[in-house]
Amino acid sequence: MTSPAAVLFDMDGTLVDTEPLWMAAEARLAEQHGIAWTRGDAEALVGSDLWAGAQYFIDRGVPMTPDAIVDRLVGEVLDGLGDTLPTRPGALELLAALREQGVPVALVTMSTRLLVDRVEAAFAVALGTAPFDATVAGDECTQGKPHPEPYLRGLELLGADAAGSVAIEDSRTGAASALAAGLVTIGVPHAVDVSHVPGIIHWPTLAGRTPAHLAAAIREARA
Predict the structure, then answer these.
(1) Beta-bridge mates of residue 168
(2) Which of 18, 31, 42, 148 is such that its CA lies 20 to 30 A from the CA of 171?
(3) Per-residue pLDDT tens over the stretch 35-69
(4) What are phi and psi of 182, to 5 degrees?
(5) What's the CATH number where 212 sits?
(6) Residue 1: inside a domain, yes or no?
(7) Count of other CB atoms within 10 angstroms of residue 129
């Protein structure tokens, strides 16, 4: 096997450098309502279902509905992105190589469809081709990460089997979702340290990584 059967990417913090935008939006919301907000609070929400994150704010005393909180945070991240696509190191190159080899690729994220469409369109321009064969957005899942539903849905849309496929994640929550779906999971740290998460393969970066490296990771994990 020189290429994986399929690759399922997380989005925020894995393909695009949006975690600082999320953290800043969350900090502004907390500050507006007089809530002390720590780095631990910010890290607790990385990779989580957005409505679970909204409930976290409500439990801390924010007098807003979950939908209103999600809409506000998503809107601020979209505004922060503007027309830019701040990709993570090696992400665009790996995605281009997978596209060139015809490997099925899915995007599996807890961000909403609005953000998915923005990122997908920007990647299409950068690559000159459709970046993904399937996309799973957080507002289209009944149960978000760490539940396996998002990744199981991604596999279903690709028509792929978990055994020969791999997920790439930057959060503990996302890694738990991918592992629960039966996927070999590679953790690439960004806003949080995932180097010691049990059951995953740790890569410091995607820079220099190829489809062959992904295939080798699957072989080693399944051996």
Answers:
(1) 9, 186
(2) 31
(3) 999 888 888 888 788 999 999 999 999 999 999 99
(4) 85, 15
(5) 3.40.50.1000
(6) no
(7) 12
User: What CA–CA distance (Å, rounded) separates 195 from 53?
Assistant: 23
Distances (CA, A) of 36 to 23, 148, 172, 200: 14, 32, 24, 33
Tell me whether strands 184-187 and 201-202 are parallel, antiparallel or unpaired.
Answer: parallel
The 10 Å Cβ neighbour count of residue 43 is 16
113 and 203 housed in the same domain: yes
pLDDT in tens, 201-217: 999 999 999 999 999 99
Pair type for strands 165-169 and 105-108: unpaired
Predicted TM-score (pTM) of the model is: 0.91
Say if residues 212 and 3 touch (Cβ distance below 8 Å).
yes
Give backbone dihedrals phi and psi of 76, rounded to 5 degrees, phi first: -70, -35
